[in-house]
Design a protein that fits this description.
294 residues, alpha+beta, NADH Oxidase, four-stranded antiparallel β-sheet, two-stranded antiparallel sheet, 6 strands, globular
């Protein structure tokens, strides 16, 4: 695979089939990790690999609370090895150089996984202390990231990046070799109306400002979707499942959530007004009974 194709192929996946990985495939990925750039070739990293559903499943929920991780073929725990780099460079070596080393290794891990046909996800939001305890890690190692890797259940679209001019400053000048891309002809917006598309697959789509009306998505699957600023009205979402959803400042008007289950949620500053809460329980406690006791 051409490297430019590999760059576009790698993305974050959080939906795996539970299929296995072979030892030779894992060896390739770990070799890529150890070939990453690092400070003074001190290789200030350590990798702990959990293989198979039984080992990987131990991470949930104490180390990482996303249940999807249990279907990973392997999870690589990436730790900094602070011993040598801290001795040589002090706090800067421990707090900066070692972190940079592991970040470079993680990028190689994810690119190598994509090259082998797997999907991967960089996880930084996990319980470091629980991870250390579960793996019985030495004090010289600090776990800083998890790489969950597996056979993907469904492809996810390539996510947008900020415009180049927004994140890059170029100082100095380079010779002009012509336009980077041929000038594209202006095209009318794509329209699809009255279509019957069972079992359709949509991959690597950019749908900014798109409009969807009268759509039936029974048994559809969505992963790694960004709906920032979107509006939804008249939705029927019976038996729908959501995983790893960020719904900060979301507003729901007149929803029917009968029989809905929420697990491992952050509900800080949530307000519930004029709602029917018959049978609503939190951690096994009936909320209506609790309010009566007050």
């Amino acid at each position: 695979m051409e490297f430019r194709d590999l760059l576009m192929k790698r993305r974050s996946y959080r939906s795996f089939t539970g299929g296995p990985m072979t030892k030779s495939q894992l060896d390739y990925i770990l070799t890529a990790a150890t070939r990453a750039p690092n400070a003074c070739n001190m290789q200030s990293w350590h990798f702990t690999v959990l293989c198979g559903t039984d080992a990987v499943g131990k991470l949930y929920p104490d180390v990482y609370r996303g249940e999807w991780i249990r279907n990973s073929a392997v999870v690589i725990v990436v730790s900094i090895d602070r011993e040598g780099v801290e001795t040589r460079f002090g706090d800067r070596g421990r707090d900066l150089f070692a972190i940079q080393d592991t970040a470079c290794a993680m990028n190689n891990i994810l690119l190598a996984a994509a090259d082998m046909g797997f999907g991967g996800c960089f996880i930084g939001a996990f319980d470091e202390d629980a991870c250390r305890k579960m793996l019985n890690l030495s004090e010289r190692y600090r776990p800083v990231a998890l790489a969950a890797i597996g056979t993907v259940e469904a492809e996810v679209p390539l996510r947008d990046r900020k415009p180049m001019e927004e994140v890059i400053d170029i100082i100095g000048e380079l010779p002009d070799d012509g336009p980077a891309e041929p000038k594209k002809e202006e095209k009318k917006p794509f329209e699809l109306r009255g279509a019957y598309l069972p079992d359709a697959v949509f991959d690597d789509l950019y749908l900014g400002n798109a409009v969807f009306n009268n759509i039936c998505l029974t048994n559809a699957k969505f992963t790694d979707i960004t709906f920032a600023g979107s509006s939804f009205g008249g939705l029927c979402m019976n038996d729908t499942k959501f995983g790893c959803v960020d719904m900060k400042n979301a507003a729901f008007d007149n929803p029917d959530l009968t029989g809905t289950t929420f697990r491992n949620c952050t509900l800080k500053d949530v307000k519930i007004d004029n709602c029917d809460i018959d049978g609503l329980t939190i951690d096994g406690v009936n909320v209506k009974d609790l309010l009566k006791n007050d």
